[in-house]
Amino acid sequence: MKYKIAVSGAAEVGHCSKNIEKLSREVGREIVRQGCILLTGATTGCPYYAAQSGNKAGGISIGFSPAVSEKEHKKVYKLPTDEFDVMIYTGFDYAGRNLLLTRAADGVIIICGRMGTLNEFTIAYEDRRPIGVLLGSGGTADLIQTITRRPHKKRGAIVYDTDPKKLVQKLIKEIRKDKNHKGRK
């Protein structure tokens, strides 16, 4: 069975690192190269760049839309559909979409981001999903180490790297450990 890795990140990338498009594309491509399925929130920016490169690498890309239909996804939310092999229209706006996306994933990668990315991180964290954080990408991703240093209950594994390939490899290792430990196959 292939692992499902969600890419969570900034839909608007103006506050991210200057090479954010390249980094996001490398993450998407590496997820596919490692034999995994790419999940995103069917949005623009970092997740979209990852989906584009994942598709070009011959992978499967599944989008979780906040909308109830394709029409609403395009007209109301103004989000893309062209890079997704499968689109799941949740009808639960962004907060509900984030929950479903994160819970459908075996692991989550955080690239840059703002509040929505932080929401997806906290869902994954509370659910004890393995998380990979792309350091140096800006935004939320660069704050997570500081946030998790504060007193808190230890949850699932969090791995960090500045290199997309190494980050995906580290995350897959943690997903394997998580599945073997919990007996989830």
Textual characterization of the structure:
- With 185 residues, this protein is an alpha/beta fold.
- The chain has a single domain (4-182), classed as 3-Layer(aba) Sandwich (Rossmann fold).
- Helices cover 44% and strands 17% of the residues.
- The chain is built from seven helices and seven strands, in the order E-H-E-H-E-H-E-H-E-H-E-H-E-H.
- It has helices at residues 20-33, 45-56, 70-75, 93-104, 115-126, 144-149, 164-182, and strands at residues 4-9, 37-40, 61-65, 86-89, 107-111, 131-134, 158-161.
- The chain has a seven-stranded parallel sheet, with helices on both faces.
- Strand 6 (131-134), helix 6 (144-149) and strand 7 form a beta-alpha-beta unit.
- The longest helix has 19 residues, at 164-182.
- The termini are close together.
Brief sketch in words of this structure:
This protein has seven helices and seven strands.
What oligomerization state is this entry in? single chain
Q: Tell me which CATH architecture applies here.
A: 3-Layer(aba) Sandwich
| Strand proportion | 15-25%
- Give, in order, the helices and strands: EHEHEHEHEHEHEH
The profile of the biggest β sheet is: 7 strands, parallel
Estimated radius of gyration:
15 Å
Q: Helices and strands: which structural class? A: alpha/beta
CATH top-level class: Alpha Beta
The average pLDDT is 95
Shape label? globular
Strand count: 7
Under CATH, the topology is which? Answer: Rossmann fold
- Record the strand order, biggest sheet: 4-3-2-1-5-6-7
Query: Span between N and C termini?
Result: 8 Å
Helix content: 40-55%
Compute the number of structural domains: 1
Stretches where pLDDT is under 50 for at least 5 consecutive residues are none
Number of separate helices: 7
